[in-house]
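Complex 228.
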Amino acid sequence: MLVAGVSRGWPEVGRLRAVLPPGAQLEVMDPADADRALLPTTEAALVEGDAPQRVREFAAGRLCSRAALAGIGQRTDPVLMDAGGAPAWPDEVRASISHKDSLCVAVVGSTRTWSGVGIDVERAAPLPRSTWSRVLTAHERGLLEAGPRGSIAARATFSAKEAYYKWYRSCGHSGTPDFNDVDVSLLDDTVVVTPALDTDLPVARGRCVVGDTWIIALLYSEPIQPRS
Ligand SMILES: CC(C)(COP(=O)(O)OP(=O)(O)OC[C@H]1O[C@@H](n2cnc3c(N)ncnc32)[C@H](O)[C@@H]1OP(=O)(O)O)[C@@H](O)C(=O)NCCC(=O)NCCS
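Predicted structure with coenzyme A bound:
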């Protein structure tokens, strides 16, 4: 059962939906509501024997994805998995999934909507100081130490980096950017991810909604225009 984000008490979802580009579709659900029996057998086989919570979150991701794909008029074939664990989307689709214990989000668009997309959801809880040096650059740590919402903003920065990784792979790039390879800038609901000083990774832009309960980061890039 899919429910509207706002009525379920997920105002962060409503804020993100309001700024999605035309043609994009975001679906959400609580993994507790995800019925594994609704998955095609080829999808269910991907989590055969996994822990119940993992199965619920996986099922929520696939059910949300299918609803979103239908919403933009795309085929709703089973979404299998590549060797690295990423969903295997149809060629004409760019999409991304993220889930936590009680919120799953899936965002979908065609290649006319965007050339790549990545989404991440995190609880709006402080990022422990013990992890800062691993996931934040020195530049980011300096800004966050001085800022008013230090450790929540640190969590949002982390979330943007997880979304960046998915966006980067969604664009077709290979390799694994490291947390120290990019700097995140947050201003209101906008986010920009730029290469850190000694890297030449691409810039990504998007939204990062920080609410009372959830942080949702969404990065995407302009569609590639066909040559005329
Ligand atoms: C892959 C990764 C980003 C997933 O993030 P997470 O916070 O652990 O989990 P989330 O719930 O947000 O996302 C899980 C979903 O990501 C997707 N995913 C998994 N591997 C992926 C990959 N290699 N590329 C794109 N998407 C991937 C899947 O849809 C998965 O859900 P599913 O298995 O139910 O289909 C994370 O585990 C990881 O490896 N991070 C290290 C790399 C990184 O983020 N570097 C920072 C770069 S600046």
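Helices lie at 11-17, 41-44, 52-71, 129-135, 138-146, 150-170.
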